[in-house]
Fold each of these.
Amino acid sequence: MNSTFTALAPAVPAACMLSVIVPAYNEEEVLPIFHQRLVAALNGVTELQGSFEVVYVNDGSKDGTLRILQELAMHDASIGVANLSRNFGKEAAMSAGLKLARGAAVILIDADLQDPPELIGEMVRTWQLGADVVNMKRVSRDGETWFKKASAAWFYKVINWLSEVHIPENVGDFRLLSRRAVDALNQLPESNRFMKGLFAWIGYKQVLVEYARHPRAAGQTKWPYVKLLNFAVEGITGFSVVPLRLASYAGFLTAFSAFVYALFLLVKTLTIGDSVKGFPTLILTILILGGLQLMAMGIIGEYLGRLFKESKRRPLFLLDDYKPPQAMIADLARSPSPAVAANA
Ligand code: UDP
Ligand code: MG
């Protein structure tokens, strides 16, 4: 499958068939149940024949998430645990996972059981039929507020109207990526990690699979509305320059009408004369123009800020530590427990 893909990334031999990447931020409540269900699901996929790894990325959690992950890894040779140096956000945590995963295919899944692990079998089969990206589309979003659903719908409308690549609606980050798709993503240098846009941008054979999204099993959402709004702006400005153009059109249009109006006023004053009657018009003009100018400046600032961020060329995340699968078990065996010491 990788033979035609040499332009961007050197082919890395896959160490296992499937890597499952799980970003986790303050998920101590749900992780034990999640892992149990995930492993049960993975073992149920006969196509995998047990050849999988689970890469957990602890995104600077403030609760016991890391400890729970380390404990799980001590008893399960398929778990790798990455620990980021602080909370970098889900997009960065996923990027970290994508860099560390060694599977021939990779699945991104949330830790809160909103993305059912039981769908992995279907995703793997779709991949084996030749798909590079298997997008999981939510047909229902139980347990989410009316406002969140409505704003999500609007977000997809706006971004698809503006952006040059089509971003499938109601497809979250739950998806499967083939090795060449992962390699392509890993090569993208930008630090604006609007992943939904990047997944669409890489192209290749994309397949849509529908599923019902469940409410969170435990714990709390990490996306307050302000963060979601920032995320939306990030997505739109990262994948479209149309707002920049809109600002110039609006500015041009207003300036042009103002000029025509000024001519009209001039002629009127010269022929009929004028008292101080024009005050409302004056103040209105000032306000409208001021508003438009601010808007245009804001939009330019948005892109400028993005450029500034890119120009720093900072890494997307810093890894504190990564213990690949089996590392913890090996550590345990090496530690001089009495039994081991006696045998030596
Ligand atoms: N997450 C993360 N870093 C963050 C926020 C969230 O790694 O800064 C993870 C979180 O642990 C979960 C996934 O991203 O596995 C989705 O988060 P959440 O369920 O809060 O988002 P929602 O489903 O409400 O959109
Ligand atoms: Mg969630």
Amino acid sequence: MRVFFLDQSGKPGGAELCLIDIAKPYGNSALVGLFADGPFKDLLQQNHIPVEVLATQAIQVRKESSLVQGLKSLVQLAPLITKVIKIAHEYDLIYANTQKALVVGALASFFSRRPLVYHLHDILSKEHFSQTNLHIAVNLANRFASLVIANSQASKIAFVQAGGRPDIIEVVYNGFETKKYQTDESDINKLQQQLGLQGKFVVGHFSRLAPWKGQHILIDALAKCPPEVTAILMGDALFGEQDYVQQLHRQVAELGLENRVKFLGFRSDIPQLMAACDLVAHTSISPEPFGRVIVEAMLCGKPVVAPKAGGVMELVEHGLNGFLMTPGEPHELAQIIITCLQETEITATIANNAQTSATRRFDVAIINQQIAQLLSHITSA
Ligand code: UDP
């Protein structure tokens, strides 16, 4: 099957990293069309996935855009849409991986008469999107998509609540190459040495820097923990959240935590960094659609704490394979960090349980089979 994937981003967020795993098995039968240049293109190339940057100009519309802004950007999109329609004729299926890709993919699907799949990586709610963008996403999916793949039950429920058709949506969790998360102990020791982490209790945070990802909650919690507790924060401000980055640095300075918090920027050695941590914290203050970081921590055999909301509830059972906290509550987070610091045996058992069940549940080969089956139903219909 020849699949034409579309993604709006030049930067590798969770949806883009997931797309790499989905597109890989198709080899040269796939093409990923991007609407922006950037490091995501390089990552696709490193994974031998054919890629083409289709837009020469940044698309202005944002998650919170109004109808007028949306219409203006549609005019701006005309050359891109024309290009996508032309390429789509050479493929069996259009696979839109983001919202703007859905807009372009829907029109291309109509004109090229190729079926459209929309991979929904978001919780379509007013907390995350403007009313206009919600309407556009749901109506285009309802009208043009043969299939919507939701990354969790939480994303599926939000789609249906926003007016999405329940008969076209299926839940498929993100898949992971589980072997990638088995790391070499000597590499980890070296990394700990380089980062000055020896003898510390290290809490890792692995999300792009954005207010809703709640890095400030972890920093607040840290101030309530014993001094050997240190945090390392991986990730960049992918979508221009520079004010938040400055706010985080100010918060660290005000709390006198300069020696206990390290910002490491965007990193590609996630399994090694996770292995160098004692606990991975996920602190989103709005419901997380899935939370790749949580599964990755589990696969590394590391305990994970995450907020009780959204897709996280489908991944973590408190006290069995991880810890759940009330979103936005640094006191509770601090308490869980202290429990992990003190109750090492129970915590290790929880992390081992998590590793075993995550390896079974999220194996990329099985997840890709599920997707392949869904796609074959569509193209044979
Ligand atoms: N990530 C990364 N480098 C970093 C920080 C994060 O590769 O420095 C990866 C992380 O391992 C995860 C993804 O970015 O696979 C984030 O996905 P998640 O679902 O947690 O959040 P999203 O970005 O989709 O909101």
